[in-house]
Amino acid sequence: QTVVTQEPSFSVSPGGTVTLTCGLSSGSVSTSHYPSWYQQTPGQAPRALVYNTNTRSSGVPDRFSGSIVGNKAALTITGAQADDESDYYCVLYLGSNWVFGGGTKLTV
Amino acid sequence: QLQLQESGPQLVKPSETLSLTCSVSGGSISITSYYWGWIRQPPGKGLEWIGSIYYSGSTYYNPSLKSRVSVSIDTSKKQFSLNLSSVTAADTAAYFCVRHVSWACLFDYWGQGPLVTVSS
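Above: the input entities. Below: the structure tokens describing the complete assembly.
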């Protein structure tokens, strides 16, 4: 069974830039997987940040951006702020199956 | 503003069926381009897509849960439901109902996600 991989944790300084990645245990991520990204703070429902690789959801600041980097999907946060400290999840479309990564805990 | 609200028992006994209903308000449930789905999250762990349903009744299920899952929809009541049979402690999780854009990996509206505990 294909697994969606993410870094378990990452740390960034306030004002810094960080890139979180989303890969596949077998193969490369492409736009055909429609990668999307979600932010979750404790006790809250996740919030959609980016979908369809690089489209920001309504109301999401432009310091969040999505892309494909090499063989992975990527979420880049430019000018990290304290309230960006959250769990981040990617999800990929794998043929009538939507599979989440294990999540990245970001510390700012 | 679209709102989704889950309802149902928050304690289920092992081997029984977990049943939840999601009520949709502030918008139509009979709308093209959107599915209605369920996602769960065990305490302290990550997210898992369970299944999604279109207003016409067509469904998609997570292959790992397919033998135990059923999702149904009642457009007249603006509700959709989840049944998960033969539950064990491993099914203890927060269960979120979501609106699911059919052409993208986008879950754009979420319910609050009540914790459902499987315990005798």
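Note for the figure: Residues 33 and 94 of chain A are 6 Å apart (CA to CA).
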